[in-house]
Amino acid sequence: MSPLSTPTVGVLALQGDVREHLIALAAADALARPVRRPEELAEVDGLVIPGGESTTMSKLAVVFGMLEPLRERVRAGMPVYGTCAGMIMLADKLLDGREDQETLGGIDMIVRRNAFGRQNESFEASVEMAGIEGGPVEGVFIRAPWVESVGAAAEVVATYDGHTVAVRQGNVLATSFHPELTGDHRVHAYFVDMVRAAQ
Ligand SMILES: NC(=O)CC[C@H](N)C(=O)O
Fold this sequence. Notes:
Blueprint: E1 8-12, H1 18-27, E2 31-35, H2 38-42, E3 46-49, H3 54-63, H4 67-75, E4 80-83, H5 85-89, E5 91-95, E6 107-112, E7 123-127, E8 137-141, E9 146-150, E10 155-160, E11 163-169, E12 172-175, H6 186-197
The protein binds glutamine.
The site of glutamine (GLN) has 11 residues, from helix 5.
Keywords: Glutamine amidotransferase, Hydrolase, Lyase, Pyridoxal phosphate
Protein name: Pyridoxal 5'-phosphate synthase subunit PdxT
Pathway: Cofactor biosynthesis; pyridoxal 5'-phosphate biosynthesis
């Protein structure tokens, strides 16, 4: 694919703020579509895992027969971007998860669920993110996780208040916060570029 191509980017649509990501991806020049089934997953060049509730998402991934197909695509190098609950799904190791909670893995990091506190402790903050030009992004943190530690292959791309809130490892990107809720599509554009580069 040429650098100016329009990749097809799915949004995992089991649960969470799917619509906002579809809109942000379309604004970032991707062909965006919801993904619920393995056949739909097979048709996308990259995937966003939205915010929501990671325990529910994990359960539904099992029910919909998506857990293994997702793990396989991530292992095979498909570009993936997870926000908040999506970050949790991409963690190789999870703290404060539910006992039977599954993650897909993909980034050598330890993520602590609900680390920034409860729903009423949600907040917004400016976050400087490596690779995103034009100044800080507005981070919306909703019962957000943070990253306790990363392995050698993972790169910390943003911190807030001394905590790691964005990480990239190869084709996998994760943020604690929700750029899809701000109308600023730079992080999605950055991810769509990652998808193009992987073609
Ligand atoms: N905004 C969010 O995605 C919240 C994540 C939620 N706390 C979870 O555990 O999945």
